Amino acid sequence: MRRDAREAVYKLLFSNLFGDEYEEDFKKEMFFESKLKPEDTVFADKLLSAVKEHGEEIKNIISDNSKGYKIDRIYSTDFVAMEIAVAELTYFTDIPHIVSIDEALWLVRKYSTENSLNFVNGVLANYNKKIEAGGANQDNISKENTVENIIKQDNADIKEDSGKQEDIVNQDISKDDGNN
Prior knowledge:
Elements: H1 2-16, H2 24-33, H3 38-53, H4 55-65, H5 76-91, H6 97-111, H7 116-133, H8 147-179
């Protein structure tokens, strides 16, 4: 379930705030303990990569949409939930925006304070309005780097590899038919 994947990513990103970046073994253990299915592990990896790769841009988006709050005054628990949501809103074109925002609010409800809900909802709603109005800084987002396009490319690569394997099998069958 993607909610479990988001929560695992949330925990990994939160753990980064208190020391060096987590080890690959820790990530694998977190995914295992979260009982992620293979497709959820792929989603979690891509979400984690998007947050790490675009961290500075995501931080700027949160800052730009946090009216009256300096970024260093935002609760860490809220910030991490917003990082995940902004990454989804910006780079995961296949996920409805309302789902990304709702999932961030679920994380805030679970790990932060009751007062944080309105703040996080306001920041994400403000950014979402900018996206929908075409006013968000979407020019800096490389269309080939969206998760949707990466998945399409992965699927095309898989089909290509399957086709090659099928050709090899057909060649082997032809050789067998000729020898009989």
